[in-house]
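In response to the reviewer comment on reproducibility (Comment 2.3), we provide here a single inverse folding case reported in full, input and output, so that an independent group could reproduce the run without further information from us. The structure tokens appear first.
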């Protein structure tokens, strides 16, 4: 049921040739090629596979509701924020990537094809850009062995040539559309037992050592996945990383938020929403950004770390937030029960659903 769309240079009528591309004006164009993700598609020398040398984004897309839905198509949530972060991750790794418009069209083509097979199903849309195959500067990244789906003519419908690309696109680029996993809502309802784990870097490392690529969404997530396995071996569901100097960072695939109820000058009670400081080496969460934008409009106070574990234990509620899992309450931290606030959780999910563009307020903006 999943669909993959490759973004490939349009080699023109002569067919694929390393480093070449047919031109529209003076630029080579990209062709979107829809393929079946169950079939092999990457060269074994692709540096995304051999070194985790690439970047990615995971977005969600809401299926249209109602009888006229199919025509409306899926609505991708926070697409601009994800595309902006993809571009900045790619810049940090110095991997050339297609422009935002090409990714947007690839996602739309993938979602159209996905909706034909799975109508009414919400989707996860993963964008991946790798450095491409080893030893083939300037070319050789054409994907072999992936059968095109759409021998029934569908391919023609989902192939959209004519998008402009810079001539130096030597990486491998694709969009994978799959159904949202059904278990996620359960995990959200149950809440999370979380372990605090040392990430091993101090909170100044990101600024001192940019080659560590902290705060970029690179494909090198083996460490994050190992932390999750460690947590599972201890009976926990998830992880909050701390720096070696004891600051709260982020989850392996999520941003940390906490809330404190605070007295307002007029005697009523307000809410302060706080997230760790991004400069400590964490990813700028798009969910955190959009939640903060809505919370600011609702008159909530916003705060940015530095936070320490004691702040989590003292908070009125703690959550892990991400694009796929949305807002999940933390029920236990290192085995200790944390206070819950179902009303605030609901409010944060409502803020997220507003889908506002993140403001540029605050040090994480
Ligand atoms: N931090 C890390 C390390 C992540 O991998 C993710 C998402 O996967 C997040 C935070 C949350 O980011 P977003 O809200 O943009 O999904």
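Designed residues, in position order:
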């Amino acid at each position: 049921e999943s669909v993959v769309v490759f973004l490939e240079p349009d080699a023109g009528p002569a067919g694929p040739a390393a480093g070449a591309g047919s031109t529209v004006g003076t630029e080579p164009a990209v062709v979107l090629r829809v393929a079946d993700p169950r079939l092999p598609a990457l060269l074994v020398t692709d540096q995304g596979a051999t070194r985790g040398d690439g970047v990615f984004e995971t977005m969600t897309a809401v299926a249209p509701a109602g009888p006229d839905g199919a025509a409306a198509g899926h609505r991708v949530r926070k697409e601009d924020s994800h595309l902006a972060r993809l571009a900045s991750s790619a810049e940090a790794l110095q991997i050339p990537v297609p422009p935002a418009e090409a990714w947007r069209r690839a996602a739309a083509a993938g979602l159209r094809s996905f909706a034909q097979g799975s109508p009414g199903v919400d989707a996860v849309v993963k964008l991946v850009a790798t450095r491409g195959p080893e030893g083939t500067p300037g070319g050789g990244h054409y994907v072999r062995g992936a059968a095109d789906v759409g021998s029934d003519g569908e391919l023609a419908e989902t192939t959209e040539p004519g998008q402009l690309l810079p001539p130096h696109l030597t990486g491998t680029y694709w969009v994978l559309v799959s159904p949202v996993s059904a278990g996620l809502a359960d995990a959200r309802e149950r809440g999370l037992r979380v372990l605090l784990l040392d990430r091993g870097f101090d909170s100044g490392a990101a600024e001192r050592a940019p080659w560590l690529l902290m705060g970029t969404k690179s494909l090198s997530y083996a460490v994050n996945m190992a932390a999750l396995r460690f947590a599972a071996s201890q009976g926990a569901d998830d992880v909050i990383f701390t720096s070696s100097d004891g600051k709260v960072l982020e989850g392996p695939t999520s941003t940390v938020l906490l809330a404190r109820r605070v007295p307002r000058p007029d005697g009523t009670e307000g809410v302060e929403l706080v997230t760790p400081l991004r400069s400590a080496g964490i990813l700028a969460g798009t969910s955190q950004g959009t939640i903060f934008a809505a919370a600011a409009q609702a008159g909530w106070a916003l705060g940015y770390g530095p936070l320490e574990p004691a702040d989590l234990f003292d908070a009125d509620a703690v959550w892990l937030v991400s694009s796929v899992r949305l807002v999940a309450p933390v029920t236990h931290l290192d085995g200790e029960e944390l206070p819950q606030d179902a009303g605030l959780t609901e409010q944060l999910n409502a803020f997220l659903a507003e889908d506002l563009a993140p403001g540029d307020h605050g040090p994480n903006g």
